[in-house]
Amino acid sequence: MGAEGIDGFAGETMPKAMGRSADDTSVDRPSGMIGAVDNVLRLLALFNENPKIRVNEASRAMGLSRSTVHRMLTTLSFHQFVEQDEFSRAYQPGPALIDIGLAVLQNIEIRVVARNALLRLRDETGETVHLGLQRGAEVVYIDSVESEQTVRTGSRIGWTLPSHATAGGKAMLAQLDEGEFDKIYPDEALEPATAATVQSKSVLREQLEEIRRRGYAVNDGESEPDVGAVAAAVCDRDGRVRGAISVTAPRARTNAEWEREVGAAAMRTAKQLGASFG
């Protein structure tokens, strides 16, 4: 990479920063900041004040050449972060940028709405409760409420685990149709997280059928050898999956009766939470 940085963007002068004057020295710029990335983010930030932006307007606002701004917008357009209006030739937010914004809002919304439900389920079961979201073949955990027992499973906030190895992941997979399922799992072989993890797509499909019949999913040492779990999918009033609520406990405290009782509680909580969404 030359002195100009990526595609020459970093070599452009920047007399006017977004939201502050060019001679504002009150904000320290980190020495390791990448100029090209900074310019692209400042360009996207223009949508905060303008529903549409034109090349010449962005050029003036950012203190960059028209050719540089045009290259940036062309790249963003290729990745569907912006799209060009056919008639005005101005650029507006594209589907990729909109989807990211909606996903962030949805994640924040469900976490805020679900917090009290997680607390109630923790108090009812005495075990640690988690809120997870499906991201393809993985589950991302965005909230947890830990058990108050001395021996307990810990928080999973920020964890990412294979969907087929977790109760929450399987609860959400069970809501997919066959086409969606095949896109996530195109191959027969599945990577195990532990010796107990399901390792074939055909067996996983059978498990999902059982989950649909029963209403909740079970994890018996499949993501962590010493952890058992039960989970139910959270679906809104239109049937869209918003996430999954799972209850985890040391396997020493789990058995078939525990799974039935906690499964019923998880389903009840998931149904109540789902009704909160339009």
Automatic annotation (TrEMBL):
The keyword Transcription regulation applies. Residues 96-278 form the IclR-ED domain. SUPFAM superfamilies: GAF domain-like, Winged helix' DNA-binding domain. InterPro entries: GAF-like_dom_sf (IPR029016), HTH_MetabolicPath_Reg (IPR050707), Tscrpt_reg_IclR_C (IPR014757), Tscrpt_reg_IclR_N (IPR005471), WH-like_DNA-bd_sf (IPR036388), WH_DNA-bd_sf (IPR036390). Keywords: DNA-binding, Transcription, Transcription regulation. SMART domains: HTH_ICLR. Residues 34-95 form the HTH iclR-type domain. This is IclR family transcriptional regulator. It comes from Nocardia albiluteola.
